[in-house]
Write a structure and sequence with these properties.
The complex is a heterodimer of chains A (397) and B (376). Chain A is of the alpha/beta class. Chain A has a domain of 168 residues: Rossmann fold. Chain A has 18 helices and 8 strands. In chain A, the strands form 2 sheets. Chain A has a 4-stranded parallel sheet with strand order 2-1-3-4, with helices on both faces. A 4-stranded parallel sheet of chain A has the order 6-5-7-8, sandwiched between helices. Chain B is α/β, with parallel strands linked by helices. Helix content of chain B is 50%, strand content 12%. In chain B, helix 3 links the parallel strand 1 and strand 2. The chains are: A alpha/beta (397), B alpha/beta (376).
Chain lengths: 397, 376
């Protein structure tokens, strides 16, 4: 069952890449950033934030990741390295891709709040483009950023703003940031409320739906088109409940997906839906929910954005990861957890055996499947489906 | 070498072969750490022995079932040593944010350690005045945690003394490196590795005294046989396999420079006095040291390597990549381009925490030796 909003999403994505080219053609500044970087500051300063991971996900979804990874592998980057890194860096080297040659960055901005692989990734891009690079340093936290950590994240945010001003000539205006943050907050509220509609039995959305529609949450927060899209998505999801139109009318199983999706096989969710298995929630889209990216106070938006950068989903330790899992398992009435051990995301994946053990101790059936979010080589769909079916054999609703 | 010098070298070789026997005689509580960003000075100031944990060359027993197989094999080995009880002689362990595999190990151990001492330092990746302030606060928290947990007082005087001892050790190791680099001290790759690797295993005072005596009493013997004696550098993060260095000896490759985490990168840079205090001084040194590829400012690492190669007349670089180490795997093309620009040949060898096929290694190193040997 296709969401009407998906048509708008396509326009949104094509508009984003068309804007990227417009910025390049008119000589306006473009920053290549990673997902931990708060885009609100960039939109407030009229600097285009090109989210390289999003581009990687697009290559994955179009099954073009391996084609471009091979350029990186020929350059000497090992096949074992993150497939986002390989595919996007390979696309840069090849001067080809779904939107043609990628526009050159004016600046590069990265943060360590998701993984240290990002540092290597941006270093390769830096060497290939010669663009000045800024590293927003974000040491890990137990639960959330506070005390000296929050003070450090605030100082990093201000240091980043100084870098942006210096390298692009654009001036930072706090009032403009407040306007952008206000829109961003409103969209986050709609995102949270849309996610919460999935608590309905049956859920109005499949696992694939929110993975598909997370693009504006990542790359467009604070823009009008982002808000418009989230309103549309929320309204349509709510109406599905009202009209009792559900993608998996008889949910035999309400599962949770942990980690990035397998971008090259989002149809996996459809296949499982046919068997009555619906993924009613996941931890990845929650990373843009209120647990990790909630409302930012308009009184001090820099501090608010710094707080969420420092306490990002992959910048916290296992105790918070477990607490969030237990919380959403209860909220969404989940009866089984599928941990996607993603070869290309070690910081997400390497504690999953421990988490699965702890969930089982709490009476929650869990299994681990292994794949790669972008690289189609060594992908074994049948084995994954068989393992998820084994989990479903633990009891129907 | 005169007799006394040979005796010291034999002693180093014996300790390297069976470090567990040496550690049994340490009469202080032992705190373990896994990477080079944890400041040993703070552990030593608590009158404890800071022990750098090495991969133990044994097969994995339990580690594989607790972490995904695409974690780096060194981290799986560390987890295995922790979970199997091999490290139960430690009073506790200290982690820092190093790489994506080791953060997994830290989290898993946090959930399985029982009541043993555990501390995770949230570490910056860059060196700025703000990051130095942040790390300085975090090191003070580490000190408080050790004090509270072990009910011991760590005075400023004790930290000052620990800094003095570690600096003295660093100076001795750097002098050793310098002599090897200049060709004034001829030593095989395996002995070079044995001596340097013990600096973070043995008691610092005892080690420094032995190394200083070894250097003082060393007299080169002209007829020492190092085979074809081709000078090379070894670069990477973690390479702890004696077999690897013995294979280098066999094919006549003599390590005169290293760029390894617990090689030169652990010793370059001393802690200087800072008006802002001891923690600031420690933080400044650790954040400004030659970085591993999991941190920022990596051009410094390559600059140092190129410079060391030039000064020592090194003919080639062996870059050892631990499988599944994203940081080193991505750094390799950058390092390779830079070395080739300087006309320094480089070979990448990928492997685990121990050498699974010595035959294959021998063949590759022989081929490399032949290739660069012709350039002599």
């Amino acid at each position: 069952m296709r969401l009407e909003a998906t048509g708008n999403l396509k326009k949104l994505i094509s508009g984003y890449y068309s804007d990227l080219k417009k910025y390049a053609d008119s000589g306006k500044p473009i920053a290549w950033v990673n997902v931990g970087i708060p885009c609100e500051i960039f939109y407030a300063m009229d600097i285009f934030p090109f989210y390289v991971e999003n581009y990687g996900a697009m290559l994955g979804a179009r099954k073009e990741a391996v084609k471009y990874s091979k350029f990186a592998e020929t350059d000497g980057v090992s096949k074992h390295t993150c497939s986002y890194l390989r595919s996007t860096y390979g696309s840069l080297l090849s001067k080809e891709g779904p939107i043609g040659k990628l526009p050159e960055p004016t600046i590069l901005v990265e943060t360590s709040n998701s993984c240290v692989t990002v540092l290597s990734w941006w270093r390769l891009i830096e060497k290939a483009t010669n663009a000045p690079c800024f590293l927003f340093d974000s040491p890990m936290v137990e639960y959330e950023s506070s005390g000296n950590h929050l003070a450090y994240q605030v100082s990093e945010t201000k240091r980043m703003i100084r870098f942006l001003e210096e390298k692009t000539g654009k001036r930072f205006d706090l009032n403009r940031l407040k306007e952008v943050v206000k829109i961003s907050n409103e969209g986050k509220r709609l995102w949270r409320e849309t996610m919460e509609l999935r608590t309905n039995h049956p859920s109005p959305l499949t696992g694939a739906d929110l993975f598909t529609h997370m693009f504006p949450m990542v790359a467009l927060r604070g823009t009008e088109q982002y808000l418009e899209h989230l309103r549309m998505l929320y309204k349509e999801t709510k109406e599905r409940i009202k009209r009792k139109e559900f993608p998996v009318a008889k949910e035999k199983h309400r599962f949770l997906w942990d980690n990035l999706p397998i971008w090259h096989d989002l149809r996996l969710f459809e296949e499982l839906a046919k068997k009555g298995i619906n993924f009613v929630t996941d931890t990845y889209t929650q990373a843009w929910g209120d647990k990790f990216m909630g409302e930012v106070s308009l009184d001090d938006p820099i501090k608010g954005l710094a707080y969420y950068t420092g306490g990002g989903f992959l910048n916290v330790h296992i105790k918070k990861r477990l607490a969030v899992l237990l919380d959403i398992i209860k909220l969404y009435d989940v009866d089984g957890v599928v941990f996607h051990a993603d070869r290309s995301c070690k910081s997400y994946s390497l504690i999953q055996v421990q988490l699965a053990d702890q969930l089982r101790q709490n009476g929650i059936p869990s299994i681990i499947i292994e794949a790669d979010h972008n690289d189609t080589r060594d992908y074994n769909r049948d084995s994954i489906i068989a393992r998820i079916e084994t989990l479903s054999e633990m009891g129907e609703r | 070498m005169i007799d006394n010098c040979s005796a010291i070298l034999d002693e180093f070789r014996t300790i390297r072969k069976t470090p567990e026997t040496y550690l049994k005689n340490i009469d202080k509580p032992i705190i373990g750490y896994f990477e080079t960003y944890v400041p040993e000075e703070i552990i030593a100031a608590a009158n404890m022995h800071p022990l750098r944990i090495s991969p133990d060359n044994a097969p994995i027993t339990i580690g594989n079932s607790k972490i995904e197989s695409f974690a780096c094999p060194v981290s799986i080995n560390f987890l295995d040593q922790l979970l199997s009880g091999k490290l139960s002689f430690l009073q506790g362990v200290i982690f820092s944010r190093y790489c994506d595999s080791m953060r997994g190990v830290a989290d898993i151990w946090q959930e399985n350690r029982g009541k043993s001492f555990y501390h995770f330092i949230p570490y910056p990746t860059i060196a700025t005045s703000e990051s130095i302030n942040f790390l300085s606060d975090e090191l003070e928290k580490l000190t408080e945690h050790i004090s509270d947990y072990f009910n011991t007082k760590i005075s400023e005087e004790a930290i000052t003394e620990a800094i003095r001892i570690s600096n003295k050790k660093r100076l001795a190791v750097l002098k050793f490196y310098d002599l090897v680099k200049k060709g004034e001290l001829l030593i095989s790759s395996s002995d070079f590795f044995a001596i340097v690797s013990l600096a973070t295993i043995m008691d610092s005072i005892e080690y420094t005294e032995k190394l200083e005596r070894f250097i003082d009493q060393y007299e080169p013997v002209s007829n020492q046989n190092f085979g074809s004696n081709i000078k090379v550098a070894v670069s990477g993060i973690m390479l702890e396999s004696m077999q690897f260095f013995e294979t280098m000896d066999k094919v006549g490759l003599r390590m005169t420079v290293d760029d390894l985490m617990f090689g030169s990168r652990a010793f370059k840079g001393l802690i200087s006095k800072e008006k802002a205090g001891l923690y600031q001084a420690i933080a400044k040194r650790y954040l400004n040291k030659v970085p591993c590829s999991v941190k920022g400012n990596l051009d410094l690492r390559i600059d140092e390597l190129v410079n060391d190669c030039r000064e020592s007349g090194t003919k080639g670089v062996i870059f050892y990549i631990v499988t599944f180490c994203d940081s080193e795997e991505a750094e390799y093309p950058i390092l390779k381009k830079r070395l080739l620009e300087k006309k320094i040949p480089v070979i990448a060898i990928e492997g685990g925490y121990r050498i699974s096929s010595t035959g294959q290694l021998l063949t590759r190193l022989e081929a490399f030796a032949e290739q660069i040997g012709e350039r002599l």
